[in-house]
Structures are given as C-alpha cells and as structure tokens.
Amino acid sequence: MKHTFPWAMAARTLFCAWLAAIGLAAQAHAEDGYDLWLRYRPLDAAAQRTYRSAAVELVTPAQRSPTLEAARQELERGLAGMIGRAPADAPRWRRSGAVLLGTPENTPDIAALNLDLSALGDEGYVIRSVEARGRRAIVIAANTDIGALYGAFHFLRLMQTGAPVAALDINAAPRVQRRLLNHWDNLDGTVERGYAGHSIFDWHLLPRWVDPRLIDYARANASIGINGAVITNVNANAIALTRDYLARAAAVADALRPYGVRIYLTARFSAPVEIGGLNTADPLDPAVQAWWRAKVADIYQAIPDFGGFLVKANSEGQPGPQDYGRTHAEGANLLADALAPHGGIVMWRAFVYSAENAVDRTMQAYDEFAPLDADFRENVVIQAKNGPLDFQPREPFSPLFGAMRHTSVMMELQITKEYLGLATNLAYLGTLWEEVFDADTFVEGEGSTVGRIIDGRVRPMRITAIAGVSNIGASRNWTGSHFDQANWYAFGRLAWDHELDAEAIARDWAAMTFTPAPAFVEPAVAMMMDSREAVVNYMTPLGLTHVMATGHHFGPGPWVDNLSRPDWNPYYYHRADAAHIGFDRTASGSNAIAQYAPSLAARFADLSQVDEAYLLWFHRLPWDYRMASGRTLWDELVARYTLGVAQVRDMRATWATLAPMIDAERAHHIGGFLAIQEREAQWWRDASIAYFQSKSGRPIPDGFAAPEHPLAYYESIQSYYPPGWPGVTAAPFRNSHAIGAAE
C-alpha cells in the first residue's frame, strides 16, 4: 500500500506471532475446518510437476509493506503446502522460472514489462505468463500492494483447483467499491442471529491481547476480496463509541489493515444522550452536531483509515431522527457532515417499519425512503435488504433498487441463515444471490438488472457497496456448519463480481475445501446447487413467506396470529382461510406492485405471466386454482412440501457416497447435520400441511402421505434458549426446533 502508518512495525511483530501460532494449530487441528478454503494440501504428482516448473522462485521487492509481506507469506505458504517447496527470495532466478509479485513502482522486473494496468484501479491485478530476462515467469502485478495481495490469492486458487498456468492472461478488478461483512456481534460476546458460537472479537481482552485468529479472519476475507467489516451489531451499543472502546477497535483495525480490511462501526443515534451528557439527540440541534464532529475526530485519531458508520434507526425500537420529528435524511446527514472531512461514509439501513399497522409491511421501506431521494448528502448510501421483507428463502427484489435516482443504494444480503434453517440446514446461498443480482428491474428499460444498478452501470452512483450479514463465530470451523463456509466464500466472490456464476463459485469452493477430484466435486456441487430450492420447497413454496415461528424464526409457525402487531404474525403473510391463500399485492389488494417499473408490475399482476415461485407473494387465490402442472393449488402445495423432503433425502444419499473421499472428522460432522436437516424438513412438511389442511378442508392427494401427527402436536412444540437470540431467559419460545419437546 502507498500509505505509511506508524504501526507498521507492530503489524510485522503480529505477523511473526501469527505464523508461530498457525504452525502449532495446523498440527493439532489438521482437518477440523479451521483452514476454510485455504488448506493448501499437496497436489497430485502430475500437478506438482507442472507447478514446480512454472513457479519455482518468488521474486518480490527487498523492502515490503505489511500488505506485500502478507502476499509473500501467503504465496510461500501455499506453494510449500501444494508442491512441497517454499521458494525463497533470491537475487537471480533459477533456470526454470519465477513468480514476480508486486507493483511497477516497487518491483523493477515488473516495471520493465510495461504492463498496461490503467483499467485496474486500486484493487485490480493482472496474472500473466510472460518472458522476462529470457526466462519463463508468472507475473502478479497491480497498481497497489493490496491489488498484488488479491492477485496472489487468485493465483493460489488456480493451483488449488488444478487450472492450467502455461498461458495465463487474467485481468481482474472489483465491480463494487466497498464489499463488507456486517457483524451482528455484541460487546458481551454474543452474536445476534449467529449460529457458530460467540464473537471472534473479544472486547474484554482488547487491546491488550489481539487474538491471532483475527489474522486468519483477515486472510480469508482478503482471499475473496472483502475489504471492510462492521464489527459491532446494528442494534448498536453507544459504549462502542467511548474512547476506551475506540482503543479496542483500533487494535482490531491494526490487525486487519495489512489485508486491506477497513473497519466500520455502528452508531447508536441516541449516543449524544447516553454517553455524551446531552439532553437531546435532535439532528438539527447545534450541540448535537458539535458532539458528533468531536466524536468522529476521536475515531479518526485512533483509526486513521476508519470507513464510517452503519446506522439502524427508527426500526425495531432503535432510536432515530423520527423521535424528534426529523426525517431519515436529516438523521443521516448529521453523521455524514461529521464524517465528510475525513472521507468516511454513512450506510443508513432501509430496514424500517413504522409503529402503526400499515397496509403492507413490504411497502414501508420504499414509502419512507423514495420521497427523500434528493435529500441525502453525497457520502450517504442507503443499505437495502435484497428483498422488500426480511431475508426470506425467496422473495422478489426490493423496489428500492432503481427507485433512488439521486442517492447511492447498496445491497444487504444475509450470509447467516436466520430464515433458512440456521446452521444445521445445508442451503447454498450463491443461487439465491445470483437470482437477485440477475433480476431485471426495467427501470431504464430491459437489462436494468439489480446487479447493474448496484455497481453503478445503470445509473452512476457516488458510492457502490454490498454488505453481507456475517455467519462467522468462535466455532473451530468458523461458521458452525462446514457447508456454511461456502456462503461466506460465495458472498465475497459475488461482491467482487456479481456476474460470476454461482455454480462455478461452488465448484471452486468444493475443490479448495475438500478435494479437487472430479468424482467428489461434481456430485457435491450438484447437491449444493439444489440445496436452497429444497429449503424453499419444504419451508415456503409457491411464494409463501415469513411462516417461521416467531422470535427465533426457526421451525414452522404459520398458525401464529396472537401477537400485538399484525405484521409480527406469520398468519399476516398468507391469510389462509377456507376459500383462499396468499397476499394480494395487485391493484385489488395492497398495490405493492406499483412500486416496481410499470412493465414489471404488469407481469407480476398477470396470472398468466407471474412466475409461480412468487405466486402467493403477489396473489390471493382459491385452493382449487389450476397450476401449470395441472394440479390444483392445494395439491401442488402438498407436492412441493413433499419434494423438499425428498431433495434433502437425496442430499444425504449423495453425501454417503462422497464421505469416504475426504477426512473422517468433517465427513461425519456433515453427515450428522444432514440427518438433522432431513428430520427438520419432515417436521416443516408435516406441520405446514397439517395447518393448511385445517384451513382448506381438502384431502391429502393420492400418493402423498398424511402428516405423522395432528396439528395440535406441532402447535405445542416449544424450545428453550434457541441459538442466535441473545437475552433469552427461562421463558420458552414456542414452535421451535425441539421436535418432540411436547411429548
């Protein structure tokens, strides 16, 4: 990197500690999932011969920044693990070739190649097979050291997946500027909606002790192009902004910085009152404005490259500008003005819904933000969830993408599977996100896809960004489930380039994480590609949504209809009765379709054109409505629920054939989780059919089994202390995953 920071020596010291720690950890936990997709296990003999001849010697500048040092160490680590040789720096190249790593500015051999790097920006890179000094070489070059680091990881990925390297010619640059993880991590170590244990940020020990695990966290993020992390929960705690905690956050920033990962913090809107001694947090109050300017100055004093604030305001009880009769724009601009002199940004979440009972919960974000389009400062970006509701297994894209013509809009995806079975259910989310990115909004005619809006190609945006709600925790395998690592991986790859193919990403991940053997990779990838659709089928088929049990969102609860707000009840979203099921969002109902481009709204409203995957999202229909399959809606619903269970059963059968090809520890763990998933899928299927049959009065169609138990059994299931829901006491959450708890 071109900037020099005073903590460079401390970073090098931390690197040495990390290398020692990792060496011991690798011996003790060879295949427990800790290494993620960066395993660097020996290649087969033929591949080793190929890569030894192509990459024998590593040539880097004598003077290296912490970032370029990280790149060098990663290449040495990877080459040593895969081909059994750690190529050291040397003044001359050996006869068979070299890897040149660096920038034209700091590496004379790269400068002599006269590579055209003009289109790569600050983070892009080239990987190219070249002739230099009369010898074969592979050059990994960039305009900056962080670009060179990204290129090093890409080259190692090529080796891990068995790609040929004889004639490399790769140019890569991110489509989106800011690619962040949002950690819903609390200062007490709990993680909201986290299913992999406690937080990896130990605020009690910071800054006196920085866990070397944070370096591996940074390595993993850099390997997939993630360049930012919001390290505190959106349900923010003002204490995180005190000077004591800023010193702790600065220690995290120092650890992540060599890998290009900048930190961000959540800002609690009421902080001027809670920690500042003021009697108001009104964004138009001069004293409040002065307090935020001073606080931001404190932050940049501690963290010179601080990225900015993420804010959740006036949603789910969080304080915000509406508490003082002000708009979201006035609240966001308060913070934006404080950050602007330092180059920081405000990511203002659009996940809001009013305290009043609105006509349609899915319309509220659009209704609140679209009228404010021209009112936000240039360094504000609106962070909208991929759908208009809340991270459901399937929902249409949010109409905010395309609605904001003057304000930057970023996408928020959820990597942790709050609504897709938590960590125990295999659901590869690359297919879900690909579906969203490829969806056409038609706001500027055909081809105005969500992805092209987010990256600024449909309409120029000052800030382009994508965030993913992290699924990382203190579990040895990081994500609770081994297959959930694939979602972290896929998020990073798609955030870098949303036009990548989700199946190709899954193939890379499987080869790197387990084995590149085609006999393993192809069936494993096929299983992954079907997995999210299986979850949709046994949870929310045909456009049903938010029928999960309340509070913890795990397990079926379509019968819940006794909460204080209608839109907190699953019943609100399907409204099943003896004659109909579904939510009418056409002009005869809530008219939510009017928030989309007219041509798309017409498709959603037309039963002959709407995709059946969204049928009950947009339409309220009779149980005897005839589906494309020729079945009635009731019969099709039963068939889809049943198909979901069968798909999970097939995944288990596939895994039984694949397990002998990998290490026993991970194979056993995955097999056990798939057994849990089949049991839970059957629970979902039976409970949902039992409930909807109680409404429809229709018989179970021929060839399909009736639910194992009566509806009352499923309604009585309870769970204590569900994971990912901090603050739970002895009071049970009903309708959760403790199947049989009522027995």
Describe this protein's structure.
This protein has 743 residues and is α/β, with parallel strands linked by helices. It folds into three domains: 165 residues, Chitobiase/beta-hexosaminidase domain 2-like (Chitobiase, domain 2, 2-Layer Sandwich), CATH 3.30.379; 245 residues, Alpha-Beta Barrel (TIM Barrel); 162 residues, Alpha-d-glucuronidase, C-terminal Domain, CATH 3.90.1330.10. Strands 6-7-8-9-10-11-12-13 form an eight-stranded parallel barrel. A five-stranded mixed β-sheet has the order 1-2-4-3-5. Helix 3 packs parallel to helix 5 and helix 16 crosses helix 17. It is globular and about 80 Å long. The termini are far apart. The N terminus and C terminus are likely disordered.
Name of the CATH first level of the largest domain: Alpha Beta
Side-by-side strand order of the widest sheet: 6-7-8-9-10-11-12-13
The CATH architecture term of the largest domain is Alpha-Beta Barrel
Total domain count: 3
Beta-strand residue percentage: 5-15%
By helix and strand content, what is the structural category? alpha/beta
Determine Rg (CA atoms, Å): 26 Å
Helix content: 25-40%
How far the N terminus sits from the C terminus, by CA atoms, comes to 62 Å
Strand tally: 17
What's the overall geometry? globular
State the CATH topology of the largest domain: TIM Barrel
**Major beta-sheet overview:** 8 strands, parallel, barrel
What is the CATH homologous superfamily assignment of the largest domain? Glycosidases
Q: Kindly state the mean pLDDT as a whole number? A: 91
Helix segment tally = 23
Poorly predicted regions: 1-29, 727-743
